[in-house]
Write a structure and sequence with these properties.
InterPro entries: C-type_lectin-like, C-type_lectin-like/link_sf, C-type_lectin/snaclec_domain, C-type_lectin_CS, CTDL_fold. The protein is an alpha+beta fold. The protein has three helices and eight strands. The chain has a single domain, classed as Mannose-Binding Protein A, Chain A. Helices cover 23% and strands 22% of the residues. Strand 1 and strand 2 form a beta hairpin. Bound molecules: calcium ion.
Length: 183
């Protein structure tokens, strides 16, 4: 009947919408690394946690949240630890992520508002101290709560953009051009 046809069309429509969401097309800015619908940026210059968080906001991002072992593995793979043999070039060992318990002690939250579904604490962490921000160790990928006023590199994360910002903005009167979606 036509009712069933409507239901089928609705389901096909939903599947199509879901498909386009899970395909996760989109763009990342230069120097941002795409992964599973998001873009990541690792900044080596050190800031206190609050300033690192603000720096991510200025890029339309948040300090990174990490939600599963796959995403955690991806982040570690981007940290570059051990890839550079020169001691001089070795990346900093600790980077801020978005996890913090600034609102309520020992209740850790992500700055991007996502639920805490996964953690990778170093053994013995989080310590019951006035350490309200969380760093990730480049070497092991383990997490440690730390004094927020410590200087650390940091990782920003944002959703992929539907729009690619053209490199030739001046030639297009500042308009963004929508190009073909990435595979
Ligand atoms: Ca700690």
């Amino acid at each position: 009947t036509s009712q069933w046809l409507m239901v089928i069309l609705l389901l096909v429509g939903l599947l199509f919408s879901f498909g386009t969401l899970t395909d996760q097309p989109g763009f990342c800015q230069n120097h941002w690394v795409p992964y599973a619908g998001h873009c990541y940026y690792i900044e080596r210059s050190k800031k206190i946690w609050k300033e690192a968080s603000t720096a991510c906001h200025k890029e339309g991002a948040f300090l990174a949240s990490i939600h599963n072992i796959e995403e955690h593995s991806f982040v570690i793979s981007q940290l570059g630890y051990g890839r550079l043999s020169s001691h001089y070039l070795r990346p900093s060992d600790e980077l801020w992520i978005g996890l913090n318990d600034l609102k309520m002690q020992m209740l850790f939250e992500w700055t991007d508002g996502s639920h805490v579904t996964f953690t990778k604490w170093q053994t013995g962490e989080p310590s019951h101290a006035s350490e309200e921000c969380v760093e990730i160790f480049s070497s092991s990928g383990k997490w440690n709560n730390m004094n927020c006023n410590s200087y650390r590199g940091y990782i920003c994360k944002t959703a992929k953009s539907k729009w690619e910002i053209s490199d030739r903005l001046s030639n297009t009167n500042g308009r963004c051009q929508q190009k073909g979606q990435t595979p």
